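Q: I have 290 residues here and want to know how they pack in 3D. Can you give me a structure?
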Amino acid sequence: MLLDIDSQVFDADDHQPVISLLSMVAKYRHDWRPMLPAAVKAERFVHKLRAAEVKLPALSLWAEKAVEEAAHRSRPAPDTKVKVTLGNLEPVVDDLEKPAVLVVENRIGDGGFIRAVAVALDDERMAHAINRRWLEFCNGGGSGQMPALGADECKKFAVLIRVAMLFDGDRDAPEQPSRNKGKARKAREAGVPHVHVFHWREVENYVPFAVWDYHFPEKSEVVGRLRGLIPRQRGYLDIKEEFRDGGRRWRMPSPLMPVEVALSEQDFAELGEDVVAELRRLLAMIHEIL
């Protein structure tokens, strides 16, 4: 999250939350782009720690760089998300130290999908946050319990509600309203600040063809047929049914998005002209809680 840290926090009686706050900034977990006076005060705070033989080398390097960058900054960051003051220092730092939470219907499938999208669309910050567990995928166990689960996850946070939610579209045609529309509304009413409902049927409809080629090499004719459909048709199919064999439903592979398949933006763009734009909106929503 982009922070606006009041320089008075460096006069706090308890140095621990200040150290924790600056350490998160130094690790690029959260952003602070101070103007020169605040950067100098932060550097002096770090210098005092060093003089007291508190060894935080990463913090020292960050403080020096922050002063250098601030000397060339002419105006504050316009899109600041969080104001950190002496009055709210401890609860805000406590919230910032917790992982952000994305509630999904299936933690392994949906979580792996978000990770693959972040890598393919060159969202290095998102991929790094996932790898460092700064973003946590919370398993909804299907969509029915998700509004209540989202409300419960919100209780983890005192000031900054760093929770978002992702629903499948659950629609059979583009004109049909999503069957999860009401659940998304309930989640927002329960306090979940960020909710995205997939435009297409479900996450499997956003899986690139290269992934299906990898999972089902013996089903090349099925993948070829899917490739031949226009997005308006393919986006609302039950993809799991397309891979059914011998009168029984095929079980979707787990993980859904194999790390062995290197995907690019073009792989997702191949699915339809609006797909990449929707996925970028989804990533932007998640950034709101990071």
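Q: Anything worth noting?
A: The beta strands are 2-5, 31-32, 82-84, 100-104, 135-139, 163-167, 194-197. The chain has a mean pLDDT of 93.
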